[in-house]
Every structure is written in C-alpha cells, then in structure tokens.
Give the backbone structure.
Amino acid sequence: MKHTNVKKIEWLSWCGIIFHFLAASILFIIASWTQSEAIYVESWHIFSGIFIWFIIVLHARQRRAKIEEETDHTMPSTPDNSLFEEDEDPFSAIKRLAFFEKWIVPFATLIFGFALIINSSFFFYKYTRTTFRPPISNSALAAAFLGGIAFFSLLYSKYALGLAKEKNWTLLRAGGSYLFLNAVLCFFTCISMALYNMGILWAEYYMVFVISGFLMLIGLEMLFNLFLEIYRPRVAGKEIHFPYDSRFLELCTGSKGLLKTAAHTLDYQFGFQVSETWFYRFLEKAVVPLLIFQILVLYFINCIIVVHPQDQAIIERFGRPLEDQILQPGIHYKLPWPIEKVYHYPANRLLMMYVGIDHSEGDHADDHGQDNKAQKGHSHGHSHRHSHGHSHGHNHKDQEESEALLYTKDHGHAHGSFFMTAQSTTGSLQKDEGVPVSLLAMDFFIHYRISNILHYSYKHKKPDVLLESIASRELTKYLAGTHMQDLLGNQRLLICQQLQKTIQQNAEKYQLGIEVVACGFCNIHPPTDVALDFESVLGAMEQKETAILEATKYKNEILPLAEAEAEQILIEAEAYKENKINMTKAEVQAFQNIAKSFEQGEKIYLNQKYLKTLEKQLQDSRIYVIDVFNLEKEVDILNLEDKLSSDLLQLDFNETEQKK
C-alpha cells in the first residue's frame, strides 16, 4: 500500500465526517421546524455515521504510520557494531497497528453496535406508545432538502465504494456502504414527505419504524460479526474484514452479488476456499431453480383458505362475488390470485361500537384492500376508550392500562354532549318561558353482529360508519324529547329498547346487513365545561335535602311531645273543672245547712260559732281565767295541759345511786 493512498483515505474520511455532521445538523433543524418524527430519526441515523468514518480515520493513520516506519527501515544506514542486538521497539507503528486492530476496533465496534440497538429500541418504544402526533408543516420544502441530501450522499458513497473495490482502498467500504444506506433512507423519507403533502399520512409514520429497524439490524450484525471474528482462524496474508464493515450493507450496495458475498464470507470465516467445493458449485447452479420452485409453492399455497371460527369469507372471481359460496369456518380452496380473491369478515363475532366519544386516535376500517384478511367492521367503531372507574365489558387491548378518570377533566367527550328536556323550575311552563333543556355527555354503546355478509360488504363502502351515523341521529332525536330524570331513573331500559328497535329498522332500510343485538348508556355526566357548576348545584340540592330531612326529624321529635303536653293540659283542665264544680256544690250545700241551723236556733248558732272561733284562735295560747269582779282573791292557775306519766314521777333517784 502506498503512502499517498493511505493519506487520501484519511482525507476522504475527514470529508465524510464533515458531510455527515452537516447533513445531520440540517436534518435536525428541519425536524424541529416541521415536527416530523421520520426526519428526526433519520438525522440520528446520519449522525451515527460519524463514528464509522472516525474509526476509518484512526485506522488509516495507523497504517500510514506503519508504512512510514517501514520506509525508514528500508533506507540504507550505517552498520551496527554493537555486541548485543537491540530488542524490537514495543511502541513501534507495527505494534500500535496490531494493538489497534486487535483491541480498539473490536471494543469500538461493540460500543457502536450496542449504541445503535439502544437508540433504535428507544425509538420503537417511544413512537409505538405515542398517541398524539402533531401535524407536519412545510412538508414539500422538507422533501426538497431530503432529496438534495440523498443525492449528494449517493454521489459521495458511490465514489467511496468505487475506490473501495481496489485492494488498497478497502477501508472506505464501511463508510461508503453506510452512507449509501443513508442516501436510500433519505430518498424514501423524501417520498414519504411528498405523499404527506398530498394527504397520504401513513407513509411518514411507517418510515420511523423502517429507519429504526435498519439501525437495529446494523447494530445486531456488527455484534454478530464481532462474535464470528473471535473464532475466525487467522491465515497469514488473508485480507481482514473488520467487524464494523457491514456485509449486509455491502450486499445492498450491489458491489458483489448475493452468492459471491456469501462465498467470500464463508471463505473468510472458515479459512479455506468454500467456494471451490462441489457442494457450493452445485448450489450455485441449482439456486435459481430452487428459488423458482419456492416462489411457485408460495404462490399456490395462496389457494388454501383458512377461515377462523368467528369469521366468514367471500370469494371474488375477477371482481365479482360468488354469492352462493359464502365460506364458513374451516379449510377451503380457491383459484390462485389474481383470478380469485378472498375477503374475511367477523360475521360470527359480537362487535361493539361507541357513539359520543372523540376518536382522534383511530379510524374505521377500510374496505377490503388485502387478499388475506379485510375486516371492515372489525374496527369496533372507535379505537379510543375511556373509563370512569369501571368497565363495561369492552374487549379493547388498552383496557388493562386504562385509568380511572374524573368527569371534571376532558377525556374524549368534547363533542359528545346531547340535548335533553328538563323539568321547569315553576312546575309548569309560563307563556313567555322557553322549554328548559339540559346538556349531558354520555357513552352510547351498540352490540351488533353481521347478519348478511353480502349486504355488509357490497351495499355500502363503510357500513359501520353508516351505522354510527344512524345511531347518532336517532339518539339525538330521541333524547331531545326525553326527560333527563327518565334517563337517569328507572326508564333507561325502556329507552334502550326503543332505540334498539329504531336503529334496527334503519339498518334494514339501508340494507347494512347488520343485526343490532343490544344497546345501552354508560358514563352519563354533565359536560366538562360546566362540571364544577353542576357539582355546586348538586351540593346545594344535597344541602336542601339535608335541611328537609333535619326539619322532618325535628317535626317527628317535637310534634308528639306537643300533642302529649296538650292532652295533659286538657286532662288537668277537665279535672280542675270537675273539682271546682264539686267544691262549689259542697260549699252551697254547707251554706244551706248553716242557713237552716241558723233559722232553727239563732243564739245557739252564734254562741257555737263564737266558741269555735275562740277555740281555733286560742288553740296554741296559755289561758288564764281571772275573776274580774273580785280582784283581791288569789289567782288560781289551772294547768289544763297533759300531765306526765305517774311512773316518771315515782322514780327515786337517790335510791338508785345508793344501789350503785
């Protein structure tokens, strides 16, 4: 290898680093400007190429140092007259190159491979869980930039790969093949942005996963090459294929054919010419017939149809359905494509649809566009689901991850409110008073099944969308004339039955081929905008009900006591009345008796009355009787009090003391 060739490789590698850095920077700016996730992932893909070119720079510099050292040793020098031979320099360029290829390159490849795998895994995890993607702006201008970067990447990669075909330029193969993949992915990203500008949005979405898949594939291949490099037999003079040089990308660039690349890989891995063996030569001759045979087998396998237990299928022959051949569950046969095509439908499955939910995440299923399975009605109407803390039997895969939501926060009912009549506050409408209405947000679900698969498939392009429109129309009309209290009360089942009957009649009218099995309401609540006011009204109603209950309690406690007290007063008054009457009668009778006695003996009565009065008044006074006509006599005191007992007067206290 010439010194100038290695120096040119080093110079081209630096140019590759600068090109990758500029292209990645431009794409980073465009991604933040347009909010395109595909461009963002591709910018990381291009930025990762800087590592490969940097390894090539270091590798070329070590080889250049080795060539310069070998050149210095080949120049004539003065003879060495020393007695002892000097040991080889451990820090010579040859030793450094061997150390670089033995240790630095494998460890760098290991780090780079894991970095690509981690980066791609992060993109897969991030964008598979993303539910909202912002719209892309200026997609046409972004497509123009991507096309320019793809063009210059292709030019530079073809130039590097053209030089890498020469024996002394093989170091450029890794960088050139990686840049060629960047050019291809930039071109397809450019196409996806152009399609986005025309209204086809899915291409840009899937480019994110295509680019991430290539990143993971390259990282896994580098780790696999590193693993094989450890057990590869070392053959002197054999060109080394470094693990960071991807054979997959080499095959994609078209520099070698598939068989030639496989033969070269086997020769390099096993250390002998596998391509010279009889088996390889036989395989080289028979590979084309084998591939043709496999393609034919795969083509005719398409004639075998497997209809799953919950499905039915329709066969189309040259675009016309065979109405007498509705395929039931089991194994069937058909003519190969494109003569006959088969379309599967979940005719034996109970499907579910929600009306009144904002389904911004998903759309209804398309009409049959695949040959293997086209489930137009299997989309269940909506792909978005929300829950108010309980489940209604919806068989959606996100049910396990659903969280309890409060109706005071937005959860998909922004456009799902319905008008309902409400009772007037005055009890009856006045002359100038409008009809009171209420706004309620709710989920109205429909369980249905496909009853006529031909009508379902060919009468309408999207029968489930039409069914949703019919249900929404009938629901709006019916609720507009229904009281809110009936829906929230015991009339809900009757309302559901009437709506089911009306929706079924319309489905038969439009020949949807659908049987409505059941329908119902759930998650009924006021709109989010007035939720706080509704809670305030509910609080006031609860306070009113509490005050009424407390007043009733007070009434039930006080009224019996008041009635008992009134009864007691009446009884006491009646007793007082009777007593007063009796006392008055007694006094009258006594007075009559006194009057009769007075008439019979006036003096006797007066004296008796006089004596009784004295007796009553002098009952507690000491009485002295004095003869007022003879004051000179002695006063005789008559003690008329009760005397003490004779036993007490006869006691001899002196005799008692002597006995002691």
